Structure formats: C-alpha cells, structure tokens
Amino acid sequence: MRFDRRRASYLLGRVAAKHAISRLEEGVGMDAIFIDSGIFQFPVVKSKLLSNVQVSITHCDDLGLALAFPEDHPLAVDIEKIDVAQAEAFESQLTAGELRLIAHTEPDSLIGCVTVWTIKEALSKVLKTGFMIDFKVLEIQSLEKSGHCYTSEFIHCAQYKAISCRHGDYICSIVLPKQTSCDLNDFWLAFKEVAGMPSAPSE
Predict the structure, then answer these.
(1) Which DSSP letter does residue 127 get?
(2) What is the pTM of this model?
(3) Lower Cβ count inside 10 Å, N or C end of the chain?
C-alpha cells in the first residue's frame, strides 16, 4: 500500500477486528488472531484458538469499527460520513424506487442517500461480493425511520434486514438475518463514541 492514509485505514480496521473478536471470545488475546483477506477482499479470521468465528470491518476517515460473530449467524457493518461533496455520487447509485423511499421517509435527502448506501454496502459484505455485484440485487424494499434510526428490508435478499443509526456526521448500518435478533447495544455505544470524536485534520 503506497499511501499512508490507506495503510492507516487498513491497520485501523484490523485492530478494530481483533478487539471485536477478543470481546466475543474471552481469553483469546489479540496476538493470537490474524485477519487475512479472502479472494474478494472480505476479512477472514485465522487463529489456532478459534473456529467458525468471522468479522466484518468498516472504516471512514479516522474511524474504524468491527463486528465479530459466529460463522453460522452472518452480520456485516458499514459506516459513511454525511458529506455534501459525495452527494451526487451516492445518489447516482440508487434506484428510482429507493429515491422514492427516501423522499417519503427522510426530509434530508443527503442523509437518506448515505443511509441507503451504507445499507447496500453492508449487504454486499454479508454476501461476500463487495460491490462486484449488480447494484439492483442489493435494492432495498422498505425504509422506516424512528428518531435517528432506520430499519429496512430488501427486494431480492428477503432473508436479511438492516438497522441503521445516525450520530453526528456519520451513519452506520448493520445487516443481519431477518428472523433473528442480536444484542447490539455495546456496538451502538461504540459507534456513538467513535462518531463523536473529532476527526484528525486531513493532510
């Protein structure tokens, strides 16, 4: 990796992943965990002390978050900054149906577009394809808002649902199996903590 910022973000994600796994599997030290990359660049957990544990990693600016989970209950996470400079790019990747959902649900179209973008990126991580998949496959079917949080479901991946929250200048989304529930309180507290921190100035 040639660029310092890219190196820093890569390492930040790996450190966050090791912390998350250590919280999930008490007694397993961070030095016993290696985070490798799969063929499509998704993270793969390797450790002689662990089996069937995986992790989802996300980073934005100087923030890094990770979710560790048993392999038989997939989860994925994505975080993005609400940035007006990116508004056109986010909006251009959404379908007409998604834009109608945003107009009906969220008065601030930028917040709505960033929210849907994070939802779709998190789904692409659950599917382990990243954005090497037709965006139409990731299309959301619903978007409901309660305070600073949103819930949504998918047209083509009906087995999954998404939970999204906004804090400060950031939106974070988690995708999980539709018919299950997880105790995500610790994760959302961590998100609010890191999202409330001032970012380091850009170089």
Answers:
(1) T
(2) 0.91
(3) C
